[in-house]
Amino acid sequence: MDETIGVKLFTLMEVDHAENVAWRNYTNMPEAYPVLGKKPRHQNRWSEVVDGRRETFVANSIDEIAEVFDDHELIRSLGCESVLNLPIFINGELRGALNCLHEAGYYTPERVTAAQSSKPLARWPSCWPKASAIKESTMGKITRRVATDVGGTFTDLVCFETDADTGESRVITAKSDTTPPDFETGVLKVLEKGGVDRPRSTFSRTAPRSSSMRSPSARASRSA
Q1: What does the alpha-carbon distance between residue 139 and residue 15 come to, in Å, rounded to a whole number?
Q2: pTM score, two decimals?
Q3: DSSP symbols for 86-144
Q4: Per-residue pLDDT tens over the stretch 17-57
Q5: CA gap 34, 27 in Å, rounded
Q6: Sign (positive/negative) of CA torsion 126, 132, 134, 135?
Q7: Which of 25, 40, 178 is nearest to 99 (CA)?
């Protein structure tokens, strides 16, 4: 996202509807916004735009941010006064958001369009394990959340690797050829290219995206 539209602060949040909170799955500023931190969800202009209209939320001043986010003072202290939130919907349900923050007035219509054009990235979080389910089991460990997306030509992988002690994170990506009809072969190949330890990974299928492309997605969560 930094290369596409520019960010100072970038996070990935996963919505937990049962607790009415959002869990942080990735951050480029772990000291200020640690992985597995959570934020309460409120009914406000943000929810009206994202939940109600299913649109990208954009605010280009700290006053606009303060209207919807309780942590606006921390956001400002990090040199950020504009925000762009790209919602992730899976099967019609809000599952998370890609959050980009920068200096005041940064997210122009042109940058918003560029960010929205990158939203194929949002297919990957459909395979995330729930942050709340792993938060107690990763203390003192490196956790990798690995997701694959099987397409008609290529199989893509993204891996969010987090040190639970320091909060430091990195993103690993890889691409391999899709291998119909044995789609699992392509998944295993892309895992190997990404350096994921297959014997210590567990997988589960998700529903195919369409009847014409019965391609399983796989997920793996590994602690080391």
Answers
A1: 22
A2: 0.59
A3: EEEEETTEEEEEEEEEESTT---HHHHHHHHHTGGGGGGGGGPPPHHHHTTT-TTSEEE
A4: 888 999 888 889 989 998 888 899 999 999 999 999 999 99
A5: 7
A6: positive
A7: 25
